[in-house]
Amino acid sequence: MKTTKRKMTLWLLAWPIFIEQFLQFLLGAADTLMVSRISDDAVAVVGFSNQLFFALQTLFMTIASGAGILIAQKLGSKKREEARVLGIMAVSVSAAIGLLLSVILYWKPVEIAQLLNMPENLLPLAEVYISIVGGGMILSALMAALGTAIRNTGNTKGPMYTAIGMNVIHIVLNYAFIYGAFGFPQWGLTGVAISTLVSRLLASIFLYWLFIQSFDQRIKLRDFKIFDRKLFKEILHIGWPLGVNSSCWVFTQLIIFTFIAMLGSKELATRTYMNTLESFCFLLGFSIALAVQIQIAHLFGAGRTKEAYQGAYRALLIGLGLVTVNAFLVFVMGKRILGLFTSDQEIITIAGSLLLLNLLLQPGKMLNMALGNALNAVGDTKFPMWTAIFSMWLIATLLSYYLGVEWGYGLVGIYVCMIADEYVRGLLALWRWRERKYLKRAEAEQQAGVLPTNGAVAFE
């Protein structure tokens, strides 16, 4: 597969990403549903542990995300060997970080759970789940690096097919180990952990097979010794602000959940159900945002700055239309859908007011995602980082505590702060994109003969 000849239309990039993300969402929902058949304690352990794993993933996603943007830029500017080296380094460094995390999580699961204040009665289950799934964190690191590299060559279908296979295998193995089906032993939560590990291992093998043939020159095992300091500095230059940005989101969300827990179990359950409903709006917009990041990075690398600039607005308009329609459908049908999950009328009533606020939330998210990813695509990653530090911590977190908890507005108050955070970051990203700072710099370098004036990738 020769990456530089692949068409980079927004639709061709976006639809496989959407299916991949949607399947990941279904995997989480199916996991929760199946684990609930074991016990409520098992569900609590899985949910808590997954929050921990997600937080730790920001360590290697920093490298993978930075390398992914650079791969797209280098391919756009016809620097194909540099793109290949970036992919190799992203995989090897991410794997090293993942291996270190695997060792720590495997050997110290109880100590880590205690450090995070997990209830004593859950520690035996946590020891099993964290040691097995956390012990395979290297597989998560490999999947992140391999998938990101492949996706940024323009091949978004490969990771999608991988996600389909991984989901099917994981659900089948979950069923087998939880219920003792197909002659398998009934291993409960241990079986769920093993199922997760096996499905990720098989997914990593398939992604590796795709990765080694994703560039003009096939990648061999000995190539993983390659380490280019100059290119790695470029990864860190783009990647560390992305890591800070992601960390801000992960940790502020954890803190906001503790605020909601202060309000009561009904509010916490309502927020959990609303997360599920919001995902139907969020995933499609998120897929458009990821696709436009890949497209703009290629265009930027090819020196086609005007097309890159306009491409962000085109994706934004498409995304706004899609998420607004989805949010309206959720608003109209939300209470009926919630009735499938719970019969508690208090929860359904609380959610009713949030469904209206979701109509305001989703366009703000789309504005933030589309233009934030456009800035990332051209290497302007520090600006979104600083806006995230300011807005996520002061508006989404601190203000939500006062409005939601101290001043008694509850979940509605917290949602209002979440909406304000999205629009503040989105409007700041819009202002920054309209400045065209990095695009103007690239145009000046292009006129000076430093950058190419055309690329080898077809765009629409």
Automatic annotation (TrEMBL):
> Where does it localize?
Cell membrane
Task: Cite the entry's keywords alphabetically.
Answer: Cell membrane, Membrane, Transmembrane, Transmembrane helix, Transport
GO molecular function ontology, one term from the record? antiporter activity
Q: Which CDD domains match?
A: MATE_like_8
**Primary location recorded for the protein, binned into one broad class:** membrane
Domain of life of the source? Bacteria
The cross-references to Pfam families, in alphabetical order and at most eight, read: MatE
The membrane topology of this protein is: Multi-pass membrane protein
Q: Show the GO cellular component annotation of the record.
A: plasma membrane
- Where is the chain membrane-spanning? 52-73, 85-108, 128-149, 161-182, 188-212, 238-262, 282-300, 312-333, 345-362, 383-403, 409-431
Record's protein name: Putative efflux protein, MATE family
Write the lineage as a comma-separated list. Bacteria, Bacillati, Bacillota, Bacilli, Bacillales
